[in-house]
Amino acid sequence: MLSPLDPLLHSELRLAVISILIGVESADFVYLKERTGATSGNLSVQIDKLCKAGYIDVEKGFVGRKPRTLCKITEQGRIAFKLYVEALKEYINM
Amino acid sequence: MLSPLDPLLHSELRLAVISILIGVESADFVYLKERTGATSGNLSVQIDKLCKAGYIDVEKGFVGRKPRTLCKITEQGRIAFKLYVEALKEYINM
DNA sequence: TTAATTTGGTTTATTTTATAAACTTGTTTA
DNA sequence: TAAACAAGTTTATAAAATAAACCAAATTAA
């Protein structure tokens, strides 16, 4: 039977965020928003979920006087993504 | 920016159904239920959505005295699946 | 200098989905 | 002939995604 798909990753926006974070050291809220085209509200919620799941680390601080939310994928996130991709491949027959 | 993912296909069960139908001439309700492990109710609903979207053809009939729901992917379904897979690849960096 | 706008978000409300539970109709089987 | 089963459908509930409204601080414009 087909492997189940991690519901935390099987979400367009969360998958996009993880997909971006996989390729970079870290990315901030503004960058993720621009790259994904998401609304702030939606992005905020989804970042929170990924953080609570332990898939990303979120560091809130300031750069100069502006707030900055920095996101970084965790090892757990990398593993979950890898497993998700493997499961997905069963569905798209690759 | 990342391509949007067809919401009709970006659903675990509907994707599983299409994935199975891609590989066979046709498949009936019972077979799909067994292969996906879904409940009847869920499967029924999702088959309906795929049908209404024009991604599959559904033929309800009888074999002997037992009802049989036969599903078959349409050309539109094949195309949608192909596009979905292409879009997905952007996310999983392939 | 103070009023409006922008930036970088968060919170709350709404809509949509997925899923499960309950139900139906006809058919075997005991 | 009553109980159980098969093949679904319908309805109710739970969870998700998304948008809209909001907020605080900083910047810009009048």
Give structural notes.
The first copy, chain A, is 52% helix and 19% strand. Chain A has 4 helices and 3 strands; from the N terminus they run αβααββα. Chain A has helices spanning 12-22, 29-36, 40-52, 75-91, and strands at residues 27-28, 56-63, 66-73. Chain A has a 3-stranded antiparallel beta sheet. The two termini of chain A are 15 Å apart. The model of chain A has no long low-confidence stretch (mean pLDDT 95). The interface between A and B is medium-sized, with 21 and 21 residues. Chain A binds a DNA duplex (30 and 30 nucleotides) through helix 2, helix 3 and strand 3.
Key features of this structure:
homodimer; alpha+beta; Arc Repressor Mutant, subunit A; three-stranded antiparallel beta sheet; 52% helix; 19% strand; elongated; DNA-binding
Could you give the topology of this structure?
Two copies of one chain form a homodimer.
Chain A: H1 12-22, E1 27-28, H2 29-36, H3 40-52, E2 56-63, E3 66-73, H4 75-91
The first copy, chain A, binds a DNA duplex (30 and 30 nucleotides) through helix 2, helix 3 and strand 3.
Along the chain, the helix and strand elements of chain A come as: HEHHEEH
Number of strands of chain A: 3
Compute the average pLDDT of chain A.
95
Indicate the low-confidence ranges of chain A by residue numbers: none
Interface with most residues: A-B, 21 and 21 residues
Globally, the shape of chain A reads: elongated
Q: What is the radius of gyration of chain A computed over CA atoms, rounded to a whole number of angstroms?
A: 14 Å
What is the second-level CATH architecture of chain A? Orthogonal Bundle
Give the fraction of residues assigned to helices of chain A.
40-55%
